[in-house]
Design brief:
Blueprint lengths: L1 H13 L5 E4 L6 H9 L2 E4 L9 E4 L6 H9 L3 E4 L3 H15 L3 E5 L5 H10 L7 E4 L2 H14 L5 E5 L5 H12 L6 E2 L5 H13 L5 E5 L5 H12 L4 E4 L15 E5 L5 H11 L1
Parallel strand pairs: 1-2, 1-3, 3-4, 5-6, 5-7, 7-8, 9-10, 9-11
Length: 272
């Protein structure tokens, strides 16, 4: 839903004939980014490149500081942040103002996590730590406990993190903070894709994950497929289907959240 909404917003802006930019890739899918470029929408990597122009905020969102920088440069802001991500941002801000110590489960350098962290850090000297694994969560929870054993704590997750991963991270933090508030921030669509993939795997000889290599939820689907022991590959287009896959009798297809229908159909047609 968030991906389709963002692409529709961008396409509508492009039709107005003005110069339109996105700060970072709108979504993590190279084919879609190319289509947007063909419409005249350019991707900028930093706020220093923006001035007096229309800037679309990517689905992953940005921090309040970055948004304020754009406004100070006279930019017109179009917010295409996924509503699920926006909810996480506002919850992080609410917890921060209530003096919670916030843990963010996800990838440190991921744009979504960077944006949410910006909202969690709305109050000076607030605690906000990104934990990318159960071991890291244990280590950082222990460190916080050593300086503030009575801290009010909360956990938010990247919308594309797996249920199992999120649960284990929460369990590790609870070893030091039993009253940890675990906020359900995982996107239902992400969870449904992962569950559907697990149901599909026993029925196929091999699996293709369609989507962008930079997409976190697409990479997680690939990991789930690989852990099954079945041959699995990630393909950004039909040309990336391994030649060996054409020898299998039954090949399953699963797609990341930012994979357009056209990509899925292209891969399906090539396999057929």
């Amino acid at each position: 839903m968030g991906v389709k909404r963002a692409v529709d917003i961008a396409a509508a802006e492009a039709q107005k004939g003005d110069s339109v930019y996105t700060l970072g890739p709108l979504i993590h899918n190279p084919k879609v980014i190319k289509n947007l470029k063909d419409m005249g929408i350019q991707t900028l990597e930093e706020t220093g490149q923006c001035s007096q122009c229309t800037v679309i905020i990517r689905t992953h969102g940005i921090s309040p500081v970055t948004e304020n920088e754009l406004r100070a440069k006279g930019c017109r802001i179009i917010d295409a942040t996924c509503p699920k991500v926006k909810a996480s941002q506002l919850k992080a801000e609410e917890l921060s103002r209530a003096a919670y110590c916030v843990f963010l489960a996800g990838e440190t350098a991921h744009a979504e996590i960077e944006g949410i962290k910006g909202y969690a850090a709305c109050e000076e000297n607030n605690f906000c730590e990104v934990v990318g694994s159960a071991q890291e969560a244990l280590k950082k929870a222990k460190k916080l406990y050593s300086v503030n054993s009575d801290a009010k704590t909360a956990l938010l997750g990247q919308t594309t993190i797996s249920d199992d991963e999120y649960k284990v991270i929460g369990e590790k933090i609870k070893m030091f903070f039993p009253n940890l508030e675990i906020i359900q921030t995982i996107c239902a669509a992400t969870k449904e894709r992962q569950n559907a993939l697990r149901e599909l795997l026993p029925e196929v000889d091999a699996i293709i994950i369609a989507g962008g290599k930079e997409s976190a939820n697409t990479r997680r689907l690939l990991t789930i497929a690989q852990e099954s022991g079945k041959p699995a590959a990630l393909a950004e287009d039909a040309s990336e289907i391994p030649q060996s896959f054409f020898a299998y009798k039954t090949v399953g297809i699963c797609a990341g959240a930012s994979a357009p229908d056209s990509l899925i159909e292209e891969i399906e047609a090539a396999l057929r």
